[in-house]
């Protein structure tokens, strides 16, 4: 009799174990389905967000009600590309490379610098006249007070297309008599 009870209990435990395994298996499949759904929804959200950000950044408002197919005349293009002083952002650390223990606020300043095209590969846009300009910049040093300091920067006032340094060296070598 005890063998029969033992066998019946063993069968009952085995069926409970099988039922438990089936439940766990179904729950894990259900959890995987929920996770897949969450991933798909997240992907859909990201694609939608990317689409709307691209649409927003691609919008270019019309200036003065002009058409979108307006062609900029050659003279305007040429004049805007010429070698001349232009407003440029220059990092303070670029002008003061030895002053590495400070943090500057702002970290860059607007200066007039030579830039533009020279229409010849042997030429580059270089300054012919400069002036000093003094600006107040905050200098921060860790564990110290921040203060405003006057700092001098070189601004370009006149520019000219000049022969590149590498080209000058080549022409000087060619001008020397050969032995």
Topology:
Layout lengths: L1 H57 L15 H8 L2 E8 H4 L7 E3 L2 E8 L7 E18 L6 E17 L1 H11 L4
CATH superfamily of the largest domain: Cystine-knot cytokines
Question: What percent strand?
Answer: 25-35%
Poorly predicted regions: none
Globally, the shape reads: elongated
**Which class of secondary structure composition applies to the elements?**
alpha+beta
In the CATH scheme, the class of the largest domain would be Mainly Beta
What's the total count of β strands? 5
Mean pLDDT comes to 82
Number of domains as seen in the coordinates: 2
By CATH, the architecture of the largest domain is named Ribbon
Largest sheet: 3 strands, antiparallel
Number of helices: 4
SSE pattern, N- to C-terminal: HHEHEEEEH
Write a concise synopsis of the structure shown.
With 179 residues, the protein is α+β, with helices and mostly antiparallel strands. The protein is 45% helix and 30% strand. The chain has 2 domains: 1-65, no CATH class; 83-164, Ribbon (Cystine Knot Cytokines, subunit B), CATH 2.10.90.
């Amino acid at each position: 009799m005890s063998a029969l009870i033992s066998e019946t209990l063993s069968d009952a435990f085995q069926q409970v174990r099988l039922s438990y395994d089936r439940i766990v298996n179904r729950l894990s499949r259900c959890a995987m389905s929920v996770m897949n759904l969450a991933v798909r929804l997240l992907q859909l959200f990201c694609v939608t967000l990317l689409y709307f950000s691209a649409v927003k950044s691609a919008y270019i408002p019309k200036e003065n009600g002009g058409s979108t197919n307006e062609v900029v005349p050659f003279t305007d293009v040429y004049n805007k590309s010429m070698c001349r002083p232009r407003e440029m952002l220059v990092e303070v650390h670029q002008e003061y490379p030895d002053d590495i223990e400070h943090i500057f606020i702002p970290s860059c300043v607007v200066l007039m610098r030579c830039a533009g095209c020279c229409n010849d590969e042997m030429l580059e846009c270089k300054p012919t006249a400069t002036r000093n300009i003094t600006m107040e910049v905050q200098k921060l040093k860790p564990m110290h007070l921040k203060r405003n300091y006057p700092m001098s920067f070189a601004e370009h006032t006149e520019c000219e297309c000049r022969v590149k340094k590498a080209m000058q060296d080549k022409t000087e070598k060619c001008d020397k008599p050969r032995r």
